[in-house]
Structure formats: C-alpha cells, structure tokens
Amino acid sequence: MADYKDIIHGTISNIVGKVKDVAESGTVRNIYDKGVDKAKSCGRIAKLTLEMNGEAEELKRVYTEIGRLYYEDHKDDAPEPYYASLFAQADEIKEKLRDMDDEIKSMKSEFQAEYDDDDIEVEICNFEDIVEESENNPEE
User: Fold this and answer.
1) Of 7-16, 22-31, 115-124, where does the model show the most confidence?
2) Spatial contact of 124 and 112, defined as CB atoms under 8 Å apart
3) Mean pLDDT within 12-38
4) Residue 45, Cβ neighbours under 10 Å: how many?
5) How far apart are CA 140 and CA 138, in angstroms?
6) Cβ pair 79, 71 in contact under 8 A
7) d(C-alpha 33, C-alpha 118), whole Å
8) Cβ(32)–Cβ(22) under 8 Å?
9) How confident is the model at residue 56 (pLDDT cuts 50, 70, 90)?
C-alpha cells in the first residue's frame, strides 16, 4: 500500500509544481488583469449609459419647457401653419383634461355627500398625495 501513497503524493506534488509554474509565469496574473480591466470597462459603460439617459431626460425636459413657453407666448397670435395644428391639438387635450378633472371633482363630491349623513368619516385624496406622503414618512 505504501506504493500507492507514494504515487498519490508524487502526483499531487507534480500538480502543485505545475500550478506554481503557471502562477509564476504570469499567465494567471495576465488573465486576472484582463478580467479586472474588462470589469472596469463594463462598469464604466454602465455608468456612462446611466449618465447619458439622465442627460437625455434633461434634454427632453428642456425641449418641453421651450415648447411650453413658445406655446404660452404665441397661443393668442396667428401661429405659423405647422404650429397652428399643434396648438389646436394642445387646446383639445387641455379641454379633455379640464373635462376629466370636472368629472373627478363631481364624483368626489357625490361620494362625499353620500357619506355625510353616516357616522363614517371619509377622506378623499389624490393618489399622488398619498404616495408622496408614504415616501416622505415611511415609518407610518
């Protein structure tokens, strides 16, 4: 049995020696360095992509503000033909928004009136206000 132990010991020593040779030759270090460089590059790409998306959103916001200001300044004038159709669309959308807001207010007042006679207290709030309140006060 001693022969098998010697064979196994010799095999393990041989493998350890080869691993040391590979590690000392720089192959492992080169692979490690390349992996680190790739990880850094991927991280930088992700960071730049997020920054680009943020800047693109800011650009959209600026364009929107420019359009809103132009609309406000020229809505009562005779706009150029291209803008006239866009101004008409904006006016239609604003009217639809007013109608929807009026309907919401009407429904809220009807709902509130229905429960005014009961002992139940009902508070009608905007969804955005509730979300904002819960985000600002998470422990409640």
Assistant:
1) 7-16
2) yes
3) 78
4) 10
5) 6
6) no
7) 74
8) no
9) very high
**Taking the alpha carbons of 96, 97, 100, 106 in that order, is the dihedral positive or negative?**
negative
State the Cα–Cα distance between residues 19 and 37, nearest whole angstrom. Answer: 24
SS (H, E, C) the chain: CHHHHHHHHHHHHHHHHHHHHHHHHCHHHHHHHHHHHHHHHHHHHHHHHHHHHHHHHHHHHHHHHHHHHHHHHHCCCCCCHHHHHHHHHHHHHHHHHHHHHHHHHHHHHHHHHHHCCCCCCCCCCCHHHHHHHHHHCCCC
In whole angstroms, how far apart are CA 118 and each of 107, 111, 124? 18, 12, 16
Does 116 have pLDDT greater than 90?
no
CA distance 4 to 106: 92
